[in-house]
Design the sequence.
């Protein structure tokens, strides 16, 4: 048995080095981890434990005498700096949903690269809304805002709760093709999912944060994310595909933050977000959805000015 196990380990190590050069730093024990079968879908977790999904900010502990386990594949990538201290897990198969898991650690793509399958045991973790967007993490009380909200899991706890298994398989991820109109009329089941918008253009407009509507910006601001002098909120840039318009949100700390907005028409792959921190009732004239691109590789067909 020892000889057989040694051959298996050596064989897997060779496979990692020869066939998957981008993942040679992955711990071998991670590849050998056993999958923990799901006992819940993400939809079931939200329905059972997110007591009030309409609250703009909330936090509820996931308590159960039985294992509460979800499974999925990592669709987030923080290598370009536009995703910070969280991962996104999206289910595979028909009618998938996705969820954001906040973790108090950077460079998460080194552990959970795109295409990595994971099992997540949610017992005693917290689920809540942040700007009406469901997230999983720990309990956090925002003293400045006097509210409960989901916070970031300590890395040591995340290591206990998340089980990555097998080799990453980025080709297993197929973004859902949608128009902007379809995205904006969809429900919360679309939050955090990876989509692709075809034949889109950047309009050269930003966002008025008071009205959540497109706004004119200066030529100097026609980059992905101008500095905010430490405030740190994402900068929004409008795109359209002929069916409607929506915002792409970019962190000023993204490696492409200072890149000029592209011209022409192209396809955009992005994670679907939602943020409403003000309105008790949804105003259909406002744009609450916001898209997050993981890197400039998510934009194809465009022309990038020098």
Sequence:
């Amino acid at each position: 048995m020892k000889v057989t196990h040694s051959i298996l380990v050596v064989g897997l190590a060779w496979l990692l080095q020869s066939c998957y050069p981008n993942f040679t730093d992955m711990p071998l024990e991670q590849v050998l981890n056993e999958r923990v079968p799901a006992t819940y879908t993400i939809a079931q977790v939200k329905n059972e434990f997110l007591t009030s999904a309409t609250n703009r900010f909330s936090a509820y502990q996931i308590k159960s005498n039985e294992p509460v386990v979800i499974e999925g594949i990592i669709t987030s990538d923080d290598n370009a700096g536009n995703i910070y201290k969280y991962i996104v897990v999206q289910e595979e198969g028909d009618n998938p949903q996705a969820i954001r898991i906040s973790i108090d650690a950077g460079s998460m793509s080194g552990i959970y690269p795109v295409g990595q399958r994971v099992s997540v045991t949610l017992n005693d973790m917290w689920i809540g809304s942040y700007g009406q967007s469901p997230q999983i993490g720990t309990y956090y009380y925002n003293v400045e805002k006097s509210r409960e909200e989901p916070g970031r899991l300590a890395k040591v706890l995340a290591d206990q709760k998340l089980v990555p298994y097998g080799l990453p398989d980025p080709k297993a991820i197929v973004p859902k093709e949608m128009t902007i109109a379809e995205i904006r009329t969809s429900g919360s089941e679309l939050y955090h999912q990876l989509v692709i918008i075809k034949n889109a253009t950047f309009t050269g407009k930003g966002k008025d944060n008071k009205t959540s509507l497109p706004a004119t910006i200066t030529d100097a601001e026609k980059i992905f994310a101008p500095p905010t002098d430490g405030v740190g909120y994402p900068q929004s840039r409008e795109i359209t595909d002929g069916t409607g318009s929506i915002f792409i949100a970019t962190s000023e700390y993204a490696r492409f933050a200072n890149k000029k907005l592209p011209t022409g028409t192209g396809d955009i792959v992005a994670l679907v977000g939602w943020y409403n921190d003000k309105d008790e009732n949804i105003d259909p004239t406002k744009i609450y959805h916001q898209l997050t691109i993981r890197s400039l590789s998510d934009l194809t067909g465009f022309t990038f000015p020098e």
About this structure: The mean pLDDT is 91.
